[in-house]
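SAMPLE LOG
Freezer: B-3
Tube label: C17
Construct: single chain, 358 aa
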Amino acid sequence: MRERAPGLSVRLKLTLSYAGFVVIVGIAVFVVGFLVLRFLPEGNLYSESGIFTPRRRDLTEVFVRYTWFAVGALAVVGLGGGWIVSGLMLRPLHRITDAARAVRDGDLAHRVDLPGRRDELTDLADTFDAMLARVEETLDEQRRFAANASHELRTPHATMRTLLEVARADPAGVDLERLLHRLDLTNERAIRLTEALLALARSTRGGALSPEPTGIDDLVATVLAEAEGGAAGLDLALAGASGGIARLDETLVHQAVTNLVRNALVHNVENGWVRVAVSGELDEVIVDVVNSGEELSRELVATLPEPFVRGTGRTRGRADGTGLGLAIVASIARAHRGRLELWPREGGGLHARLRLPR
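STRUCTURE (predicted):
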């Protein structure tokens, strides 16, 4: 925490400012009155009835004497009134400060919850509450992510340990070729999961982007050419390409489109199909990936961008998936200030739309 030298409180500053303005107004009135008195003629004055009228000097002496009394009274009233008014005005700030201290001490559930009509202070309090809600949600997501990542990483290592323990317990009865094959598959799964975690970590760092002019149509065509080898028995085709050129991080966008196509291929049905279309608008590029597949509910589809969630549930997903594909796509979209949209397709399957600003 930054160390600061002690100074005047905001309440005292406002009080002094309020009292200073009141005194200045009083002095201004005094000056105006004094100038008005200068227009009175010098000497004693008598009305037509013979009544005596004070001289200018007499009026000036009385005016000056009582004006200083009035200015002093205004200073006292300004200090007292300013202290009370500034206290009332700053009370919401004290409430916001107390909430900030509570959050600093670890109480992320604390909220300002400032009542009253909308003004600058209520806007500040509402923005602060929204920020706290977002921070709490982000921390909860990180905790769930850490727990799920630990579970996913532990599974292949535990499998390899079990295989080795069984082989060590009965060396004579071990089928070495089968053991090596299973160890190779399990190790490959751990490698894919680790690479996916690294890709997810990189995609969340928006400041690490390296935007450059990228031909979206060529990029998508390259991804489809690379994916043809894994599309055995599925109809993979490009339905349209008119994306044009956009300034994007080509490596990350390539990863995002690859994940969308791979997800569509993995979560499909026998003799199914995948259609990819690229369209361009004035301010954004849209990549649509639509695939056939099993019926999906909107509730399930809404959770798919979360880490380690698969199309048929977290624990019943396919063994060749990491559960991070769509989470990486969503992170890449956010890093580019875009978004990933998902909705179930009528008749089964998924429609994924990646929107990226041009």
